[in-house]
Amino acid sequence: MLDKKNIAIIFPAWTNCGTYRVVVGQIAAYSEMGANIFPIALSMKPNATPENKSKWRDFLASAHEIRDVCHLGGPPLAPLLSYDYLLNALWPYFHGNHAKIRVWLTGHAQLPQEIETQTFDLIHCNHFFSMPIAKRLAKEKAPILLETHDIQARQFEIMNRLNWCLRPKVTYDELLADELAQLEQASALIHLNAEEKRLFESLLPGKQHILLYPTVNQIKPTSHGDEIIMIAANNPPNLESICWLLDKVAPKTKNFSVSIYGDANKGMQKSFPQLFEKFKFNFKGEIRRLEEAYQNAKTIILPAISGHGLSIKTVEALSTGLPLIATSIAFRGMDLPTQNLKGVVIADTAEEFAKALDENSLTNTPSDNKITKPHETVEFYNKTFSPARYKENLKKIVSTYI
Question: Is 10 helix (H, G, I), strand (E, B) or coil?
Fold first, then answer.
């Protein structure tokens, strides 16, 4: 169906987050369907132009699955010295308007010439603030499918609670208005879970809304390890979850032993230095390949206490077949039966979570080097989030536009 069709896949140049893993699945699915894919990573760093590889060193080092096929784009220095940037992007940002500055920066991104001159049959755009580039490349002809990745105004509001900004702070309604203005310009909106779809349907009743559960590549531990692990990137919901785990849960355990992988250590050290110092040996830092964190795991914990939209790392944890200890919030956006799967322990209070950790520390010891039989979570993953299921669902959606 997509043989030789030119598909642009636009996304922010992030790697240590759920968006990146969703994008990896998109690229793989379109490739398997025979499309000519043009993945375009957008940076919001000053002077992150395609030829300035020094600005892309971290991204290219981390994006090992897709770096060889990615085209790069970002804002040059000259526009950042303009009055328009100071007035319409930077000044609102000082008041907490992450929406305006992101739209402005991506809109001024410099792209490779081969991308600018290419004719596309379809644009698959991730996040509302990538829309300026999507519109530029669509040239008023190609349809634009915009994947929302939750209501971003919520995330910006959380960021403003944790970070300093000038008064008057931008309101949630103002952030949401800027977001919806970009979404209105897409041909159709794709949502990662049913809750997200219902919310956007109420906000934009005139648009077409499509539910598409994402795919996350399955992680298969090769041996049964001895670590209880948590995966956490440096973002506000993860920091809140870690604070709850360390401040409320840990003191109630008999022997707190959790390894926290990811760059959340940077955020904890900056925003919660005392708590970080007390538990600094539990933070293992960022690792080159996420799969490495799971190879010595015996249990995965998901102590989410906030957040909206589908949790990609929960899907990832389900795919491993390892035992899970989680709060109900970690399963947001999924059907209720997920929480009843064998191998999943739901613990919504600090006392319950501590008890589950203590019980787990006494069981599942690595008596041999072979992985135990996977739980029902793998079967659920295969039926709902596997690459094969995702490709099948994406194919149905795209067929109406090409």
Answer: strand
The encoded tokens of residue 335 equal 């059907």
The one-letter code for the residue type at 196 is: E
User: If you write DSSP's letter for every residue of 152-202 in order, what string do you get?
Assistant: HHHHHHHHHHHS--PSSPPPHHHHHHHHHHHHTTSSEEEESSHHHHHHHHH
> Alpha-carbon distance 102 to 43, whole Å?
10
Question: What integer pLDDT is reported at residue 371 of this predicted model?
Answer: 43
> Amino acid identity, residue 258?
V
Determine which helix (DSSP H) or strand (DSSP E) holds 346, and give its type and residue range: strand 344-346
DSSP-assigned states of every residue in 98-116: HHHHHHHHHHT-B--HHHH
Token code pair at residue 9: 């896949």
Phi, psi angles (nearest 5°) of residue 47:
65, 25
d(CA 269, CA 251): 20
Q: Strand, coil or helix: what is 348?
A: coil
Residue 368, token pair as written in the block: 């041999």
Q: Which of 199, 258, 214 is nearest to 232 (CA)?
A: 258
Question: Residue 144 corresponds to which tokens in the numbers above?
Answer: 């634009």
309: left (phi over 0), alpha (psi -120 to 50) or beta: left
Q: Please state, in angstroms and rounded to a whole number, the distance separating the CA atoms of residues 368 and 243.
A: 34
Residue with tokens 């790392």: 313
pLDDT, tens digit, for every residue of 1-34? 688 899 999 999 999 788 998 999 999 999 999 9
What percent of the chain shows pLDDT beyond 90? 78
* 276 Rama class: left (phi>0) / alpha (psi -120 to 50) / beta: alpha
Radius of gyration of the chain (CA): 21
Is the entire prediction scored with pTM above 0.70?
Answer: yes
